[in-house]
Specification:
The protein is an alpha/beta fold and about 350 residues long. About 40% of the residues lie in helices and about 15% in strands. The chain contains 12 helices and 12 strands. The strands form 3 sheets. The chain has a 7-stranded mixed sheet with strand order 8-7-6-9-10-12-11, sandwiched between helices. The protein has a 3-stranded antiparallel sheet with strand order 2-3-4, with no helix packed on it.
């Protein structure tokens, strides 16, 4: 029996329509096999993606506003957006992107945790363990090279939506490292195991991050909630740089790893940190976000189709509403040295959210 195309390959997380100044960006999961188009391995209905639309598809690269196309083309693009084949980057921010540097253990970690912050201020994401092959999608499990390529392509699209820069360090994900074949989540008392099990890798990561945090801009570090070894290694490498005085504590804040912070205790994890001569732990600070920033974060999470469940993204958005009620927020953990700088950032975000609301 011939395979029946699906009328819509995906269900959108958001229901908003494309705005005139939105920049459509195609997702990297489309495959052209001569007989038609597949998306995430499934055939796409020709009514949604006619063969004549290939050139238009490739033109959706985030550089053109939606209003710049002719009406029939806009209709096709709107259909792709509704079906989840493209995402919408907002109009580029009027001010230059900020000097924020976000240390992301893997592609998607920074965006899951701080997508609204990136949407508002921009910055640069540094992916540490960026060579991954693991996926929830059966179509890609037997195609690890393709999965690895697509996971990075998803990250580039998400950064394009957020207007953020991207640096890829290329270290291998724990799921593909021999040291963690029996499991890569560590308990609170096993933090030192991460460094001791792979000392050479730790030194390489610390050296790479030293180069990436050179300068004087803010640096956001994973709190390592949930105990994933790669998150712990990234955090411990940053703490190592602080101890060596390569990274100033007044530049540093920690962010809550998502989705782990939905079911693990971020407060307890922060309390286990003791930093600097005073051996202090970071304290929480909410960063409010406007509805426009939340919308942009939702768009930026949609490209992560190989690993992130739709239900997880929805829970993260709900969590932000619970944190910021009656508004919306993401939470950082700041040190006494960095409290003023990040307090100013929070105040700027709050003022914009209030004006937009």
């Amino acid at each position: 029996m011939p395979e029946r195309p699906s009328p819509a390959p995906s269900v959108r997380r958001t229901t908003h329509t494309l705005l005139a100044d939105d920049r459509p960006i195609r997702l990297p999961h489309a495959e052209f096999d001569g007989a038609g188009v597949r998306f995430l391995g499934d055939p796409v209905d020709p009514a949604l993606f006619p063969s004549s639309a290939t050139e238009l598809w490739h033109a959706c690269d985030g550089t053109r506003p939606y209003r710049s196309w002719l009406s029939p083309e806009r209709e096709l693009i709107a259909g792709w957006h509704a079906a989840g084949l493209v995402v919408a980057a907002p109009r580029p921010r009027s001010r230059p992107s900020s000097a924020l540097t976000l240390l992301s253990p893997h592609p998607d970690d920074a965006q899951l945790a701080l997508g609204a912050l990136l949407a508002r201020f921009g910055g640069r994401v540094v992916d540490v363990f960026s060579h991954e092959t693991w996926t929830r999608r059966a179509h890609y499990r037997s195609r690890p090279a393709l999965a690895s390529r697509l996971l990075l392509a998803e990250e580039r699209v998400a950064c394009g939506v957020l207007g953020a820069g991207l640096t890829v360090l290329g270290h291998t994900d724990a799921a593909d490292r021999a040291a963690w074949q029996e499991g890569y989540f560590l308990g609170p008392q096993s933090v030192d195991t991460a460094r001791a099990a792979e000392p050479e890798l730790f030194e390489r990561v610390a050296s790479d991050l030293a180069a990436e945090v050179a300068g004087d801009g803010p640096v956001l570090v994973p709190l390592a909630v949930g105990g994933h070894v790669d998150h712990i290694l990234t955090r411990q490498a940053a703490l190592h740089l602080i101890a060596r005085k390569t990274l100033e504590p007044e530049r540093v804040a920690f962010y809550e790893d998502m989705p782990y912070s939905l079911f693990a205790d971020a407060t307890a994890e922060a309390g286990r940190l003791a930093i600097g001569r005073e051996q202090v732990s970071p304290v929480p600070l909410l960063i409010p976000a406007s509805e426009a920033a939340v919308r942009t974060k939702q768009e930026a999470l949609w490209p992560y189709r190989l690993q992130v469940l739709e239900a997880v993204s929805k829970r993260i958005v709900r969590h932000g509403r619970q944190l910021g009620a009656p508004g919306w927020a993401e939470r950082l953990w700041v040190l006494p040295e960095s409290a003023d700088a990040y307090g100013e950032l929070a105040a700027t975000a709050a003022e914009e959210a209030a004006q937009a609301g």
